[in-house]
Predict the 3D structure of the following.
Amino acid sequence: LVQVVESGGDLVQAGGSLRLSCTASGLTFDDYVMGWFRQAPGKKREGLSCITWNGHITYYADSVKGRFAISRDNTKNTLYLQMNSLKPEDTAMYYCAANVVNCAEYDEPTRYWGQGTQVTVSS
């Protein structure tokens, strides 16, 4: 059983910061490309950023580039997303995925998804 679990979402003021975490079990964490995605109501899930097993960042969405930073700690089986200068338009459910091939695609059949963590940014 593969389990992917996100945490760290919260209600924050515009301009604030959050750090999201994602832990994975039931798989060898450092075998997988990991990524962060988000979905706002009425919109498709969009790719934000992905990172390889050895820390190479493969993608940043232009909407978050320069504000968000992805990282991973393979010793803790944990993926992070540092989110700075948050805007109301960042409000969404944020998802972690393992086994990403193309980070720009909204979904792939091979991915393992977490349940999501809600981020709400007020103005």
Notes: DSSP finds no helices and eleven strands in the chain. The radius of gyration is 13 Å. The chain has a mean pLDDT of 94.
